[in-house]
Amino acid sequence: MEEERTTKRLADIDWSVLSGPRVSRRTMMRLAAATGAIPLASWLAACGGDDDDDDDDDDDGGTTDPTEADSGGSDDATAIDEPEDDEPTATSGQEISGTAAEATPTSDTEANQGGTLTMGFGTVTQILTLDPAQVTQGIVAGELIANIFSSLVQFDENLGVVSDLAEDWTVSEDGLEYTFNLRDGLTHHNGDTLTAEDFVYTYERTTNEEFASPHANKLNLVTDITAVDDLTLSLTLSAPFAPFLAVACSRGPGRALTPISRRAIEEMGDEDFGLSPVGCGPFKVVEGSREVGQGLELEPFEEWYGGRPLLDRIVIQIIPEPSSQTSALEAGDVDMLNIVDETGVELIQSNGDLVLVQAPGTSWSGLTMNFTRPPWDDVRARMAVSKAIDREDYVERTFFGLATPGHSAIAPAFGWVYHADDPENPQAYDLDEAKRLAEEVGLDGTTAVLMALSDNSRAQEVIRNAMTEIGVEVEIQPLQSAALNERWQAGDFDFHINGSVVDADPDDGHANFFYSDGPWNVYGYNNPEADELMNKTRETNDLDERRQAWLDLEKVLQTDVAYAFLSHSIDFTAFHQDVKGYRNIPEMRYMETVWLDR
Amino acid sequence: MTRYIIRRLIHSIFIIWGVATLVFFGLRAIPGDPVVQFLGAEYSPEAAEALNKKLGLDEPVYVQYFKWLSNTIQGDLGDSIATGETVDEAIRTGFPKTISIAFVAFVLALVIAIPTGVIAALKRNSWIDYVVSVIAFIGVSMPSFWFGIILIILFAVRLNWLPAVGYSSIEDDGLWEWFKHLVLPALAVGAGFSAILMRFVRAGLLEVLGSDFIRTARAKGLSERSVIIRHALRNALIPVVTIAGIQLALLLSGTVIIEIVFSIRGLGRILVGAILDKDYPIVQGVILLVSVIFVLANLVVDIIYTFLDPRIRYE
């Protein structure tokens, strides 16, 4: 028993958990084998280009940062950076630190129905659109749209894929055929019946070129989508794609196939739909409540298949300024914060009325060096830079220690492949070696332009200081995000700190950056061996093989210094003691189980 | 007078047109493509092209300019690129908030500045005068965002008297809620303004109190109260009105940072967000409105002079 519990905790994201009780074991095994999906919130197609610590609107800053608050009480809080040997393991999805134990998801008290919960919504200054197919703000997808829209599947606390609108599903042995059996009696918020046909329409809408959905590429491999009957949807892929369920079909991240009501679009048009959509999830948007930069209100959707959510109303109030977020929570203006900025963690932890919850990060951040510009085309130069950076110090000074030092692009949330310790990491901090390499390549006196967003440059300052040790003079160039994106696309920079934010699967954070023709590979990385290994992670049906392919790839990327990997974020949220029933799913805020103990 | 006002209004149109034109071309000279911004850096060239076309950004800038000008004259300010809401809507939701903050800040500033300024002048060089001066000095020097955060921590978090963030409209929640939400932002934004005003009231009053007509008024045996309020203060207010006019306009722009601290999406926040997002239509629309406000505020100030000092006449 004890052993079983331990195993479960260590292996939150392990395949056997994924095959959990909610869907038949057999189905889940087949699913797991065919997909490799260890979901996590995915979204954020456009997430790559920003700084790890930026809060800019358009990229979801969801993840600002990483790790481990000091472990207020529960031992588990440190699990994030503890190695736990290299079993497929690690980071459990829910660490509760701060005051808290009793305020966790499972409370003994019986759930009350009713009440209004006000949620302070941070990291964005305005919600650009609520149309799933158009959302580029990842945080809006996972934490807001996920409450307005259901999708084929959703995530559980252990990041397993479980049933949502699809009661169950099968995936063929070769990973090409997906068949979803929908629940009976589903409806959209406008009262229309939701059938397999809606998914076909959604597919057509998302992939329509004129519609220019940023998520259309998630459906590139789909060669056929058919409504076999009202309750049966079948999909055919041209090649097996391990993370397909997570990135295209999940509640929140799976924006590309989140079902849209055709009648609603025809009546409202795309723009009005984006402002106040007709969804099919547990909550619906209160008519007329949406104000672009101020927030909106949600009310329960009585006909949701899962039953009426417990709250009577959720008021989403946008609070862009981190110090104001914390104040609003402390003052009781809001009951909950969707995201806690690292600057607020300590205050919240020290306040006995509040509960701080953390989940392992799903992102990575690193320093890219432009391979097309000498001397950065020389691996020794890049290695010198990487080895001159003390990750512990970087995390301490950039995130006040509230992040996980990084050594690769595999985020801690992917416990089945992530390993916190990497004794053989060729990029590990070693100043003597860095100096030796720098001398060998003649880096002394080199200048490098480090392109950065203008709003926060803590990370850049730390790098600049570290570089003085090896004689490289870093010039920090602050830019607004539009200009930065253009320069990034044009490959016009020496250094830049960015990474992937809020990934559904390691695939998200790798393919874009490291394939020699990846859309984010603007810095000139090209290694056929890496391409080959990435292909392997997508094609293999064998779990151990897939894991091994990721680890091999990790080593290649480290050795090539594709990036100088720096850190991983931690997902923090907080609420008052009387908020109960919160399910801690990294990067997501499914609110239907939440209730108020008042 | 009427002719003067009409003439001023005609001038104003040219000023506003000039500002709008500068903004239109200035925006396009700033690096950064709105379409790239909107699609995110992972955009595909096809999507960018389609969006450029949809937004009319593929046309030569002068064509865009004349289209925009003609639409604007017809009252159509266009749609936001980033959010799809109309510019009208953004202004309609943002303007009342900014005006509310500015209005309450203005009133609070006057309520604080005039009495303290008068007392400081009457008790010149006393300890009261010094204390008021020091407070005013602090008020001017204090960054409003910092003061805003301090106010939140004190009155919202510690004392729990007032809400920390947000805005309540009069229609939805009534006058009291509206006011409660505005007190802290208004104080934060109005502190510096109040301090400046107070210094002007004090200086103006001191100057006037030394003049002949005040001596005459006193000689006539008027009560001190009547001398100060009816005669001295009224004359001392002329420079105050000038400064108030300028400051009111500044107040409207000065609320930007306060709107961020207090999570109120007024015009300032809309404008700054739109500039960062390269959301041309919103920037153009909001700047147009702000320039109209500046011009009108100046006009109103000039007209108020004539009431305060009948010697001032415009022809």
How would you briefly describe this protein structure?
Chain A is of the alpha+beta class and 598 residues long. Chain A has 17 helices and 22 strands. In chain A, the strands form five sheets. In chain A, strands 1-13-20-12-2-11-10-9 form an eight-stranded mixed β-sheet.
What does this structure look like?
The complex is a heterodimer of chains A (598) and B (315). Chain A is an alpha+beta fold and 598 residues long. Helix content of chain A is 29%, strand content 18%. Chain A contains 17 helices and 22 strands. In chain A, β16 (447-453), α13 and β17 (473-479) form a beta-alpha-beta unit. Mean pLDDT of chain A is 79; it is low at 1-107. Chain B contains twelve helices and no strands. Chain B has helices at 2-29, 34-39, 45-55, 61-73, 87-122, 127-141, 144-158, 170-209, 212-219, 224-261, 267-276, 280-308. With 315 residues, chain B is mostly helical. The chains are: A alpha+beta (598), B mainly alpha (315). At the A-B interface, α7, α8 and α14 of A face α2, α3, α5, α7 and α11 of B.
What name does the CATH topology of the domain at 87-207 and 241-307 in chain B carry?
A: MetI-like fold
Query: CATH-wise, what's the superfamily of the domain at 87-207 and 241-307 in chain B?
Result: MetI-like
Sheet with the most strands: spatial strand order of chain A: 1-13-20-12-2-11-10-9
> What best-fitting shape of chain A do the alpha-carbon axes yield?
globular
Largest sheet of chain A, in brief, is: 8 strands, mixed
Cα distance spanning the termini of chain B: 6 Å
Averaged pLDDT of chain A: 79
Report helical residue fraction of chain B: over 70%
- Count of DSSP strands of chain B: 0
CATH architectural arrangement of the domain at 87-207 and 241-307 in chain B: Orthogonal Bundle
**Biggest sheet descriptor of chain B:** none
Content of β-strand of chain A: 15-25%
Query: Measured on Cα atoms, how large is the radius of gyration of chain A?
Result: 23 Å
Considering residues with a beta carbon less than 8 A from a beta carbon on another chain, report the largest interface and each chain's count: A-B, 56 and 50 residues
